[in-house]
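Chapter review: from sequence to fold.
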Amino acid sequence: MPHRSATPLGLEITLLGRFSVRTTTGQEIRLVGRHAQALFTLLVLTRRPRTREAIATDLWPESMVTATGPLRQALYQMRGALAGAGLDLDAMLEADTETLGLRPDAVHLLDTDRFEACVADPACGAEAAVALYGGDLAEGLGHDCFAAERERLADRYEDALASVAAQRLAAGDADGAREAAERLIGRDPLREEAHEALIAVHGLIGSRSQVVRQYRRLREVLARELAERPLPETDATYRLALARTVERSHLRASAMERPAAMASLAAVG
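The token string follows.
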């Protein structure tokens, strides 16, 4: 019988980006193999007992009749990793011959919960929410059963990124707004608010050609993917950005003319 440590019940789990499981004392629990990681991830996200057949079908639908084989292997590896860390398996898992689940109090801290709580709490803020998002859900696992939840969380992250770009722009942090907007466009080129933020940034610190190029990129991707044109507010931002670049150009020209005029007057004198 494995030794039971005094480690408090509960695991600290990272599912966003790099998969990680630790005890509350910081001891890493190494779940070796994709099967074990996939099973553990599914149990964490579900947190209620389900039939073993349903779990196997979710994770390995292509195997159908033989899916119980990978499930047995994954469960064996998962049990071994938890027991090896001195954890009480009965306190962690709710299992019988037909069903399997992770007990709700087995999870002390879950990064997806922290991220969603921050997104929902105005006091936490979009900046903090973005910082909590370590990567897409189960990004190293290609199982279809994670796709819908991965997309849902990614949408919330991208919404937070859009808010960050807008907030930084409003605060006068043009470089920070550009960084957030470029990250958002890298994930989803159709996010018009990110293009609008970049247009505004170029209007503040860029050139007229940068403003025009960014607007053209947006117009082209919207036409190609959605058969739509930019929204009226984006057009208004574009016109304002152009006006700002022209105004800066006039100011620079005036600044250059003043020393020349003074030099001319000095020569006459």
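Two observations follow directly from the output. Residues 190-269 form one domain. Strands lie at 11-14, 20-23, 50-51, 93-95, 99-102, 107-110.
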